């Protein structure tokens, strides 16, 4: 063995006739400048060493290559560029083999595609997820992939960003060989030996022929364009992906590479790319907390759930899907069977759509156990209550838990608004009490607010984050207050929305403006979906304590008094005929709004869509700043993650606080001061916002550890 050292990020070693090139840049072997340089040098060395007959690329650690180094984005580029590295690999005069395990994503797959032969072992994940970061594959991915596997399959991969496993990659033609075992090094060396024995020649992917049927390839582009136009309105990179792929069909390789580069740089410079990269990093940063750094999580093997209603059943599905057993407690046998039926409904839906087999369903349901006695919770490591939102009911439940739960069991509440410090204070073990605020439907929505009361111990917080990971949720740490992070901020911008409606904007115009901004639904559509009765009940509960000077719009109450709760009653802000889930505008609603405006003495005025968004966002950002200022959210990034995963905030804008930084905090503050002239009670600039503007700082400066631009 002959060890030749290089940059530490890429090491080379001769194994007989094979030049083994190992990419070793933890944690994911991202292709930073050192790796790119190392790969260039490695190919040069292999080329000039007469004893070398083939080159093999492999990744150290858990992955082949996780892609270009996302941390370098937005910074001045350092040579060599990745396209140059890929071209160098492809032009090597000796066969180059990529032996793939773990992630071969983005630039990682592009490196593999520049190699002449590819082997993947079980567990490998191959993909071109650049679109998720607002980019397109920028190192030949849009040129080599379609030439290798055809335009239709390439567009599917590049536009969806989906990861394929080794077997699917082989079926698609992305890789040539599956490893018989997971020993990548052994498998890769054996494959390379085999190729040498066959006197295999370098086989540049640029010469692959899958685009030869030009008409079929162009038809694939047109089909994809129709889908993109429907699904990715307002997004830049999907459209650039179409154009770059079309260039692969219509232009010679070198020209196609230049076209791809031009579009790649255009996407790189876009605010959408900055927003999406921000989202990528803040999701990973949100779990880095004092408590998760300090304390080891407790064991989680069994989960107890109290209540089998909307939330209890959804949480149960999330827990069952994570492979954990569930014990569900309900008030009586009838409620318990309803709880079980709610869960089975979810799985029956999957079985009907052939996304689950009947056997798989019964094996999942075997992990579910129901009971009407609290003693059945004696073994549970984490117990989550999702009973009625009523302090007396919650306190009674916690008294039972205090009696039956084993020492060290985590006692969690899914309350939306109640004071968790007060709940914890009623039992003998407040250190074990925490909020786990799931969102509806709990088996679908990604967000989990981990609500941290004063007396909870650090390892309980660490365990909550561990549980979130097992449930594949995105967890955010929140402090105790009315509504925690998400619902507290929601209450404020929702009020701003009602003000606009009363002042002259129709709910339909507001919904459309908000959708055009990038949300999947407008606020009135959300109310209709969730049920107007929920907010009505909360408003009635709070009527006595409401500040009499605060503006109160009564339009929602008028609709609820008519029993118009939204989709479930067929009428809300929209009309839903014959069980339709798509609402039609309703002149009767407009008449109610007109009447309410007259009653309140308001002369309606017109709003531009732009003003609607300015007010909507100013209210959201200002309350987001308050939440950070009061340390309900430790950092602005926690607000961003909450809104990205719990409230449909458009990911390409990075979250409300990132959006605020993008438009400039001074301009947001100016807006708020302007709006305050009409309603100073409602529009009170957040102390934090004022302070940041005075210091010329932004929210990103408070996101310790994130790499924001
Ligand atoms: N660049 C820089 N850092 C990266 C990175 C990348 N491409 N991918 C992951 N990281 C970092 C993460 O930020 C995290 O850092 P932290 O520990 O400081 O928080 C660390 O690596 C581990 O990441 P994960 O927590 O995500 O680890 P997992 O093991 O769960 O997943 C992975 C590994 C599957 C590689 C996942 O990280 C991933 O999907 N990464 C992004 C892949 C991607 O989008 N690649 C395309 C990049 S764009 C590109 O290649 C452009 C090209 O076409 C020119
Ligand atoms: P739900 O009314 O659908 O279900 C509550 C269930 O609890 C019922 O099945 C009831 O039989 C059961 N229950 C009541 N008292 C009980 C007791 N003492 N012991 C055992 N079971 C008991 O209510 P939902 O919507 O599931 O809400 C539950 C909790 O989750 C509430 O605190 C709510 O604020 C919170 N939440 C609700 C969300 C939603 O969108 N519905 C979202 C996030 C949190």
TrEMBL record:
Domain of life: Bacteria
Annotated pathway: Lipid metabolism; fatty acid beta-oxidation
Boundaries of every 3-hydroxyacyl-CoA dehydrogenase C-terminal domain copy: 483-576, 613-697
Pfam families given in the database record: 3HCDH (PF00725), 3HCDH_N (PF02737), ECH_1 (PF00378)
Catalytic activity: a (3S)-3-hydroxyacyl-CoA + NAD(+) = a 3-oxoacyl-CoA + NADH + H(+)
SUPFAM superfamilies reported for this sequence: 6-phosphogluconate dehydrogenase C-terminal domain-like (SSF48179), ClpP/crotonase (SSF52096), NAD(P)-binding Rossmann-fold domains (SSF51735)
Transmembrane region(s): none
CDD domains reported for this sequence: crotonase-like
3-hydroxyacyl-CoA dehydrogenase NAD binding domain span: 302-478
Keyword annotations from UniProtKB, A to Z: Fatty acid metabolism, Isomerase, Lipid degradation, Lipid metabolism, Lyase, Multifunctional enzyme, NAD, Oxidoreductase, Peroxisome
Ranges in a coiled coil: none
Location in or out of the cell: Peroxisome
Family: In the N-terminal section; belongs to the enoyl-CoA hydratase/isomerase family.
Oligomeric form and interacting partners: Monomer.
Name of the featured protein: 3-hydroxyacyl-CoA dehydrogenase
């Amino acid at each position: 063995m002959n060890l030749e050292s290089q940059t530490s990020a890429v090491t080379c070693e001769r194994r007989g006739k094979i030049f083994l090139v190992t990419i070793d840049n933890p944690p994911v072997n991202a292709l930073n400048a050192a790796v790119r340089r190392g790969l260039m040098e490695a190919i040069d060395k292999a080329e000039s060493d007469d004893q070398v007959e083939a080159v093999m690329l492999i990744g150290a650690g858990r992955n082949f290559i996780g892609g270009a180094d996302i941390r370098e984005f937005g910074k001045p580029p350092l040579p060599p560029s990745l396209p140059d590295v890929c071209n160098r690999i492809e032009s090597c005069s000796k066969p180059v083999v990529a032996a793939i395990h773990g992630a071969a994503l983005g630039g990682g797959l592009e490196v593999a595609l520049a190699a002449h032969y590819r082997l993947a072992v079980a567990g490998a994940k191959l993909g071109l997820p650049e679109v998720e970061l607002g980019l397109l594959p920028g190192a030949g991915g849009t040129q080599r992939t379609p030439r290798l596997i055809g335009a239709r399959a390439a567009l599917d991969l590049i536009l969806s960003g989906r990861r394929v496993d080794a077997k699917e990659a082989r079926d698609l033609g992305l890789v040539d060989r599956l490893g018989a075992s997971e020993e990548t090094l052994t498998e890769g060396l054996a494959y390379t030996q085999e190729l040498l024995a066959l006197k295999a020649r370098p086989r540049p992917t640029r010469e692959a022929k899958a685009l030869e049927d030009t008409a079929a390839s162009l038809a694939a582009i047109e089909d994809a364009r129709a889908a993109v136009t429907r699904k990715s309105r307002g997004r830049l990179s999907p459209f650039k992906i179409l154009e770059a792929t079309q260039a692969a069909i219509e232009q010679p390789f070198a020209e196609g590479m230049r076209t791809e580069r031009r579009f790649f740089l255009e996407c790189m410079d876009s605010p959408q790319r900055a927003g999406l990269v921000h989202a990528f990093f803040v999701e990973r940063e949100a779990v880095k907390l004092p408590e998760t750094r300090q304390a080891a999580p407790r064991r989680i093997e069994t989960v107890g759930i109290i209540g089998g209603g909307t939330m209890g059943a959804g949480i149960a599905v999330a827990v069952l899907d994570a492979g954990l057993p569930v014990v569900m407690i309900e008030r009586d046998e009838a409620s318990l069977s309803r709880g079980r039926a709610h869960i089975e409904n979810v799985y029956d839906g999957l079985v009907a759509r052939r996304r689950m087999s009947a056997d798989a369903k019964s094996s999942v349901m075997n992990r579910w156990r129901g009971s009407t006695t609290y003693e059945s919770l004696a073994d549970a490591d984490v117990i989550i209550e999702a009973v009625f939102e009523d302090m007396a009911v919650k306190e009674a439940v916690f008294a039972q838990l205090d009696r039956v739960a084993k020492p060290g069991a985590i006692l969690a509440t899914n309350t939306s608004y109640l004071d968790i410090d007060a709940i914890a204070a009623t039992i003998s073990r407040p250190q074990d009490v925490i909020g786990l605020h799931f969102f509806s439907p709990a088996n679908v929505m990604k967000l989990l607010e981990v609500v941290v009361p004063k007396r909870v111990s650090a390892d309980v917080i660490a365990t909550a984050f561990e549980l979130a990971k097992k449930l594949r949720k995105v967890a955010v740490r929140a402090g105790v207050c009315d509504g925690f992070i998400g619902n507290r901020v929601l209450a404020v911008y929702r009020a701003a929305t009602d003000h606009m409606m009363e002042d002259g904007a129709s709910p339909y115009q507001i919904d459309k403006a908000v959708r055009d901004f990038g949300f999947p639904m407008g606020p009135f559509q959300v109310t209709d979906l969730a049920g107007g009765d929920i907010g009505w009940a909360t408003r009635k509960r709070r009527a006595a304590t409401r500040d009499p000077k605060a503006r109160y719009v009564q339009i929602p109450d008028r609709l609820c008094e008519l029993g118009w709760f939204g989709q479930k009653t067929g009428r809300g802000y929209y009309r839903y005929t014959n069980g339709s889930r798509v609402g039609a505008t309703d002149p009767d609603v407009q008449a109610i709004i007109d009447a309410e405006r007259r009653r309140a003495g308001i002369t309606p005025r017109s709003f531009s869509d732009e003003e609607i968004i300015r007010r909507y966002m100013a209210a959201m950002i200002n309350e987001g700043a308050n939440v950070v200022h009061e340390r309900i959210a430790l950092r602005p990034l926690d607000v961003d993650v909450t809104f990205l995963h719990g409230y449909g905030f458009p990911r390409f804008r990075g979250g409300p606080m990132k959006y605020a930084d993008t438009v400039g905090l001074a301009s947001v503050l100016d807006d708020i001061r302007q709006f305050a002239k009409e309603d100073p009670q409602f529009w009170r600039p957040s102390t934090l916002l004022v302070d940041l503007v005075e210091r010329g700082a932004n929210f990103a400066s408070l996101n310790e550890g994130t790499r924001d631009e």
